[in-house]
Amino acid sequence: MAVVTSGKSLAVLDAPNLAATRTEPARPARRYASAIGEAIAVLLSPLMALYALRLRAMAPVQLPDPSMHTTFIVQPRDIFLRYAEAFTPTARLREAADVGFLEPARIAYLFFGAIPGFFVTRYVFALIAIVPVYVLLKRLYGRGGGLVGIAVILTCPVIITAWGTDYPDSAVVSYVAGALACLAMPCTSRWRRGWVAAAVALLTLAAWAHGVGALIAITAMASYFFVRLLRERREIIGDVVLTGGTIVATTALLYLGSGVLIGHYNFIGPTFAALRYLGQASQIAMWHSASSRWAPYVTYILLPPAIVVGFGVVFARRLRNIATPQLFVGVATTTLVVVFFFMQFFNHVQTLEMHYFSSTLWAAVCLALAVIVCDLSLSLLKGRWGSWLPGATIVAVAFAYEADPHVPAFGWLPYGALVAAILIASTIAGRLARGIRPAALRWCGTVAAIVGITGCALVLTVARIPNHTLFPKTNFDPPPAYAAALGGSDANLVNAYRVTTELPDFVGAATYPGEQLLMSLPHEELRSLLELIGMYHAGYDLLPSTLPVLSAGDKIVLGERRPAEILVLATSSNGANGVLVSLAPYRARLLRSALLHSGSFKAYVWLYYLDRFGRPTTSLR
Residue 3 belongs to what H/E stretch? Predict the structure, then answer.
């Protein structure tokens, strides 16, 4: 490798950077046509992957948290009007502060509607992830390397699942993947700060999309400046100033967008208020497992450290001989893995036990995996036709899984550790295969190594969590639905989302501040209606008992909260029998009822008004 200092920047010219190996310039017309075709192919790759790989475009909602964000996409001002006073002391409006996700999702909703807007937002997120990764790996390894990056991201069950709900990890995984690629981008001094500014803007969006995004942003920038200090210290102060300016500018734009789109400008104060509230000992005990006994049953968290070890195997050489982009990817991924494990097991943040949090780590893991595959495939990437083989092999592994997606449940020992060991052994074999002669055997060895690495990574990811008891000092979080991300069905999930987004229209907007709404539903139907009740903050706004039973606890809640409306939900038409009688002491009357349905998904809903707590001016609504 030769490191050349030119002007105000550090240009890295690496021996394996195959973009520089072209010897004869193509004719201008052919070159432009090729570039246009390439750009179209990259931009259409998410759509092609969706149909060719049968990606699950939506994911199951296993907690109400995603639809607690959906409500701020569909009807944000109504939630503030109803609950601002009641929710503020307990920071229960903190979802409204996740503007890095909510603002683009809200724009898509306003322009396209609920279902089309959902998919438009995900398409944009996919492009934010794959385009910078493609450009990075193309510059380092040629077009075949760029294809590897796209294939790794678009076949990753974790990222596909993250994109599938309205939880902000859908945005964070994309922002972080794009930002890491921008920070690693080899370029001349003229363009370097443009890439840095783009990366910082994406990391700022990630930080204001979710708290874990802020943790990743700080770690990624620390890794970048660490590598800069190792390789090129000149003008690092300028990069620090650029970073600060970009953070301020991006935050200011989000601030304005929050006021226009969400209805409240200040998302910064509520964010820090939520951090203080969630930092209380009682909240930590509620959400974070004090014991780590749950961990050996969650096999997919073995993958990040296995990738870090594999990366070390592939780039085991003197530090100065590692190209700067690859060095940054390795440092950033390793640091993020260490930080996530530290925060989970030595701090009080559930970075690994809750898959909505841990999924954000996979942006770095996928980029590191793509670099591993590319570096092992140098002999293939040099050829005209062989350059497509590594990416095609990754896609073939995904197809093979789809043919029979039945990975058994297992934990760390013995099978999880065995699969992780095979992954690492495959990286060793792939490195040894680079020296094999003749070329045909070398190609076969490389392809076999890619199959071993990506196949083991996929198995570790989709392996189901074995059944086990809930251990003391641990919290239960539903296992992620990674196994069905490739080749799974999402028809009923789309139907449920459509009905969920129709619920605010049925309820209608509040007519005065503090016109609170509480809910009731049969407890045995909670799982079926989980996404709908998330639209009005789920458990906090749910009566303890099921109407028409009105328990002493219900009466206490009604007396304290003084709701103007009660929303009753059920999966059958008799779900409201006797409700008017039980609510007679509150002078209840039925405002409206409906059957909300789409496809096979249906929900019966009734909206009651309590004149005892409501305002007389709303009696005719």
Answer: strand 2-6
DSSP state of 85: H
Confidence bin at 12 (pLDDT 50/70/90): very low
Nearest to 58 by CA among 179, 211, 167, 212: 167
CA–centroid distance for 444 within its chain: 35
Contact 328, 343 (CB under 8 A): no
pTM: 0.93
Are 373 and 407 in contact by the 8 Å Cβ rule? The answer is no
Residues 6+ apart with CB under 8 A from 469: none
The DSSP bridge partners found for residue 12 are: 3
DSSP 90: G
Using pLDDT thresholds of 50, 70 and 90, give the confidence band for residue 5. very low
Q: Are 423 and 459 in contact (CB under 8 A)?
A: no
Q: Is 610 strand, coil or helix?
A: strand
Residue 509 pLDDT > 90: yes
Per-residue model confidence (pLDDT) at position 14: 44
Residue that the structure tokens 């449920």 belong to: 496
Segments making up each domain of the chain, as ranges: 2-21+28-52+91-462, 491-618
What would the mean pLDDT of 592-619 be, rounded to a whole number? 90
Tell me how far apart the alpha carbons of residues 487 and 401 are, in angstroms, rounded to a whole number.
Answer: 9
What the block records as the tokens of 324 is: 């700067």
At residue 26, the pLDDT reads: 54
The whole-angstrom separation of Cα 381 and Cα 550 is 69
- Region 233-238: what's the mean pLDDT? 88
Average pLDDT, the chain: 92
- Please give the DSSP secondary-structure letter assigned to residue 505: H
Q: What distances in angstroms separate CA 576 from CA 232, 351, 540, 583, 606, one per listed residue? A: 70, 41, 21, 11, 7
- The single-letter DSSP state of residue 574 is T
| Model pLDDT, residue 612 | 95
Categorize the per-residue pLDDT at 332 as very low, low, confident or very high, splitting at 50, 70 and 90.
very high
Other CB atoms within a 10 A radius of the CB of residue 344 amount to 22
Q: φ, ψ for residue 95 (rounded to 5)?
A: -60, -30
Which string of DSSP letters, residue by residue, matches 145-187?
A: HHHHHHHHHHT-HHHHHHHTSSSTHHHHHHHHHHHHHHHH---
Asked if residue 445 lies in contact with residue 436, where contact means CB atoms within 8 angstroms, the answer is yes
Q: What is the secondary structure of 306-329 as a DSSP string?
A: HHHHHHHHHT-S-GGGS-HHHHHH
Please state, in angstroms and as integers, the Cα–Cα distance from residue 153 to each residue in 126, 220, 356, 396, 585, following that order: 9, 19, 17, 14, 57
Separation CA 534–CA 389 (nearest Å): 45
Q: Which residues of 515-553 are buried (b: 16+ CB within 10 A; e: fewer)?
A: bbbbbbbbeebbebbbbbbbbbbbebbbbebbbbebeee
Cα angle for residues 120, 122, 128 (degrees, 5° grid): 105
The identity of residue 138, as a single letter, is K
Contact between residue 490 and residue 58 where contact means Cβ atoms under 8 Å apart: yes
What angle in degrees, to the nearest 10, is found between the helix axes of 362-376 and 143-154? Answer: 140
